[in-house]
Amino acid sequence: MSIGTIALGVLWLIEPGAIHRFKKLLKQPTALLLVSFYLIHLITLLYSEDLAYGWHDAKIKFPLVVFPIVMSTKTFSETQIKSVILGFVLSTLVSTLISFGIFWEVLPTKKAIKDVRDISVFISHIRLSLMICLSVCICTYQIMKSARLRIFFVALIAWFIYFLFVLKSATGIAVLVISELTLLTILIYQQKNRQSKWIISLALLSAMSAIIILSFNRANTYNQPKEPTAFLQLETFTDQGGRYYHDTASKQMENGYYIWINICNEELEESWNNRSSIPLDGKTKNGLNLKGVLLRYLTSKGLRKDRSGMANLSKSDINKIEHGQHTANPPQFKFLERVDEILFGWTMIQEGANPSGNSLGQRIRAWDIGHKILKQSSFFGIGAGDVKNEFEQFYETYHPQVKKEFRIRGHNQFMTVLIATGIPGLVIFFLSLVFLMLPKKQSANALTLTLILIALLSFIAEDTLETQAGVMFYGFFTSLFVFSKNQPFKLSNLKFNSNFIWKIGHNCH
After folding, report:
1. How many domains does the chain have?
2. Which of 16, 73, 402, 481 is in Cβ range 3.0-4.6 Å of 448 for a Cys bridge?
């Protein structure tokens, strides 16, 4: 991606008419703000100590300069713009199909799959989920604007939504619901003949409402015990004389039963090792702590964690535990598994558990560290080159229990910008976002506004602009969509038909 971006910038400079394009650029305040945001990162290197990382960060963010400059000063044909947008949707489709093949172990991969989110082998699952969100919005836009290929785009939407649930990306699902609701609201408002639009919209709204209702219902019932537990009357010994361990202070639950009571470690270890080749203190086949998985699985069945409980497990149960399945009663819908993970993680956070491996816990610790860094940083920030080292030092001071591989940075783009570039950088960043969202008669378009909304939502929970994939996604599509006002082909006229798709496929062949 870096080589292509650099080549694009060089071609812009050496192609005839560079002076004319430069003058044109000076009349584009939005493009200038986007470029200024990059330049202020370069300026902060003057007071950064780690210049190696600083230049690495500058290389990652380089597309934030190139794409606004090129897209705001050059003209592209209708075929080029439509080919890029359709190519993006189809590329996202291919990526999801490959990931799905890895999920079902049909396709080989060298990457260790410890979690379902690891099936995204090309880019992080978060970045892939953002691309899925934009692809769904593009397909929705096409369906609402034209009856052509409606079945094809409906099928794409259905697949993308299903895959997002398989991926269990909480951020992606939340962004999709909000962005789709926003897009549908704008499109319905813009339409004169609304009957068919309302039917399609109500179908999508119903599906999204069901997701929200199911999620809230799961949250309300997750920590409700199935039966009352007399903590003061818990038995001391097992049926075979082993001593029970009870942690009555812990409220962690699985399927309505408390996890940390009725545990006999000696009986559990002996019984497990007699039935599995994986030791109790080992790892499951997807890299999880096996004992933890076993305790949760037995609890989910309402069994005691002793010899008698182990005797009630079938060969199928043992196999599921070895593969990392922590419950005998998984929810009917895939996305609710992710809801359960978040709720379980929140319970662990409340009890002060080590957040390593817990995405919600890691975010909370990262936000805490980011806040502490901000309190000690200057008006101009600490410098883009020192962000990584500063976070590492604060982890060692305040949260040393977090394993190094789980020591993430701010996971909030606004916080990261403020830490790196101070108040000046944050002001420029906000101004660039405001200018991107300002309505312009020539370019006011629901798809453009939805794209910016997707980016903004990702900035709240992620460091989107700290990775190359995130920078490419944001820099390229905001430039393509926002500066389409400069093009003879208007984004509001975006429509695909079978002849165009056949033509693109034939040219690729």
Report:
1. 2
2. 481
